[in-house]
Design a protein that fits this description.
Blueprint: H1 2-9, E1 16-21, E2 25-26, E3 31-39, E4 45-62, E5 65-79, E6 82-84, E7 89-97, E8 106-107, E9 110-111, E10 117-125, E11 131-136, E12 138-139, H2 143-154, E13 158-166, E14 178-185, E15 194-203, E16 207-216, E17 225-234, H3 243-254, H4 295-299, H5 301-314
Parallel strand pairs: 2-12
Antiparallel strand pairs: 1-3, 3-7, 4-5, 4-6, 4-10, 8-9, 10-11, 13-14, 14-15, 15-16, 16-17
Helix pairs in contact: 2-3
Length: 331
Amino acid sequence: MVFKKMLSAFGVGGPSVDTVLANPNTRPGLTLDGNVNLVGGDAPANIEQVVIGLVTRVEIEGGDSEYAGVMEFHRMVVSGPLQLAPKQQLAIPFQLPVPWETPITDVYGQRLHGMTMGLRTELAIARAIDKSDLDQVNVHPLPVHEQILGAFQQLGFRFKHADLERGHIRGSQQTLPFYQEIEFFAAPQYAQAITELELTFVTSPHGVEVVLECDKRGGFLSSGHDVFGRYTVSHADVDRVDWVQVVDGWLRETTSTYGNLRASSGYGAPTHGYPMHGKGHGHHGRGPGMGGVVAGAALGVAGGLVAGELLDDAFEGDDGGDFGGDFGGDE
């Protein structure tokens, strides 16, 4: 009996957890629905709580280096204390709201190269090693995101890479401790002005702040530098606008002589107070963010490491791929 208790404390013969999503595909502002399925072990187990959370990989600056860490950015308790009898089967239903700022992982049915997302389930067991489960989640764009991304494609921009940067875009309504950068190679008609472009969406129930960061080419007597443009659009305008014309206007304004100082035209309400340079090549202003905790700090050191291993296992062999015909891969 003592030996069995010892084994149980090390997770042998203990309860198991398996989360099943009704549909792993979702969009910002919607929900993820499913069940947390528990199966009792060889002995009764006191479950302290069952928690689910969205986790993703985020680029983090530390000193002079940058590394990737696993961050849980949204969590919900689906059950408080309960006792699980030996071999008992229990299904706990849940509906997890997906934050409006949740980054996009899939476009046109394909994973964005560089993006990972998972739903992690934590089963906290009294006097025993906690159990966990991880399920892949696919976050698809909202209609306004699709229109803007489609406009970049029609204008000839080619997708390069996407990642999440820890920090806060100065002056934005951002609430998560990171923001997404979707990177493109410049289209031929803009190639004399810029080499690459980074696109960031800060989404809310009302609309989207669109932040453009362009790597502007240097001239004969000037060096290259980054310029910024920031615009706001409403969800309600998604079908009322010629988005190719709008995005072209944003780009021409942003890359103009005064594009890094003001935004006085283009569609939507221009927003002033542009992000300041953060890294050598000019990223958005980076503070600690709102609730900016990362990796071990967010999940507990052990939790952060375990989540990192689980993410690697869950997405092994999935390097993202490229999306949408004319969007190319890494070069």
